Amino acid sequence: MVTNISILGSTGSVGKNALRVVEALGDEYRVTALSANSSVEELAEQVRRYKPQVVAVTDVSSADRFRDLSGDLDVEVLSGPDGLIEIAALTEVDVVLTAVVGAAGLASALAAARRGKRLAIANKEPLVIAGQLLTKAAREHGATILPVDSEHSAVFQAMQAGRTEEVRRIILTGSGGPLREAAVEDLHAVTLEQALSHPVWDMGPKITIDSATMMNKALEIIEARWLFDVPVEKIDVLVHPESIVHSLVEFVDGSVIAQLGEPDMCLPIQYALTYPQRVAGISKHLRLQEIGQLSFEKPNTETFRALSLAYDVGRTGGTAAAVFNAANEAAVEEFLAGRIKFVTILEVIENCLNKHNVKTDVSLEELLVADSWARREVKDSLERRAGGVRL
Ligand code: MG
Q1: Distance of CA 390 from the midpoint of ligand 1 (Å)
Q2: Among 116, 147, 178, residue at a domain's last position
């Protein structure tokens, strides 16, 4: 039987890896739909190679450009955010892999869940912002949510060893990022260059900064809370610089089940596509004898304030996580543009959370309102702070 796959965000790093994985899996897996925001040249190349039936281009003027570029190709072209929702809900599609940031990504993930699809989630926003809505929709419509984030894929795999009610705690590992050894007072002097030099994973600038603040791990705590239906108190973070143990689950009897592998996104992508089967793929095989030692340490929660905030946000629920995520995005943007210091990132996130009136039991629209409020609040607060001179 052929598995038909929609890849939402196929020109990003996860999307490109997903296409390599699908290609290596052979004829039983077929790319049915692809989407891009504006990288239409690359999308056209992908269409030539993978021959999907339909593509969605979310940026409307880029969609026109794509039509010009792809006149010779036999593919249906949809444009705008609705196109993304459409390819997430196509009847013939079995698996929707979503790696699209922002509001368009949320609506399409929700649409896939409501159509009972297998939903492979690569970016954090759907679960962080709309975890409650999304998991509820999946339960009601028989959809399966499979994590592609490496830590959550590891937890998902370890979970196969027991039942949810037998879990004592989930232990998310993190490399600790470039500032692992920094004391809280060192953070004032951190430069953009230092924050951008990640020791293990080669990723985009936003996620690399999130790794330096450990905001990445903070968001993963919230992601895990919804994916595995456990309270945040049962989720721990362990710093593991080698990034070989991708996460662990401790069961009530004291058994700890971990998933190990080379740091390579292709493995969690493939597992989400082939689950419950395991097949040989393109990921490098682990040779522990070459690594020799694995080390673990407690994260310094004074340096990494983001972690403590995540527990508060996770307990609060409702719109709090949407604000947490959006305030971080806005603050990181300011930092990457050289307009604020590294330490200011967490300060503005915390101030934003303190000012926010949390709403519970909310719709996607209300979550997006909270998201925009937080972005505006970060900008306004930075302007108020120093009348333009923010450093
Ligand atoms: Mg991760």
Answers
A1: 31
A2: 147
